[in-house]
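User: Could you write out the 3D structure of this protein bound to S-adenosyl-L-homocysteine? I've included everything you need below.
Assistant: Certainly. Input first, then the structure.
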Amino acid sequence: MDVHGIGMTSRRTRDRLIQRLREEGIRDERVLEAILHVPRHVFVDEALASRAYEDTALPIGHGQTISQPYIVALMTQALLAGGRLKKVLEVGTGSGYQTAVLAGMVDEIYSVERIEPLMKLARKRLREIGCRNVHIKLSDGSWGWKEHAPYDGIIVTAAPAAVPPALLEQLAPGGRLVIPVGGPTMQELLLVQQTDKGPVQERLELVNFVPLVRDSL
Ligand code: SAH
């Protein structure tokens, strides 16, 4: 596969995507820079690679999707707006694309995915593009990843009906949680900040994520 930027993955194709994200209101230059450089075509099936720089979600198998670049940018921007993050928890690794975009801007990422083949493929692809600060495990992320808590930032890329309490418990004081919350077809993207007075919630946008699935233990 072409990972070096000719044809469909050319600089011009990627520049067009960045232009579009700017038009849609993404302002954080670090986020735009990361999206320009992370090869999204590596995170989709070869048959879909020619569409990798369109601003759209694409299927990644097992009924799941790689998030739309605009949503990845919006969530990353919201997560980073409070300053540098050392430790981040991601729930729903999926393709690993959101993980890769974040990886260059934070110290360590702990990411959990409940579908084993997706977890393995994401791990392989992240290694291939040189992300060394990403740690992935197979599990139900509704429970977070306790061993490494607390986290300065938590990003959830599948939608529960309500914020899972374990995630709030694992969020450090001053930490930021970005999470879609709602029903199966539409959710509100929330930014929850952990303050002295408890969690404070802000609504960012209406979104459409796959559901956060709870595995019975
Ligand atoms: N950010 C990913 C989005 C993948 S879609 C990307 O851009 O590729 C959401 C992912 O969340 C799916 O892979 C799904 O299997 C996973 N998921 C759903 N419920 C989960 C849970 N309880 N714990 C961990 N992962 C979960």
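The chain has a mean pLDDT of 94.
User: Perfect, thank you.
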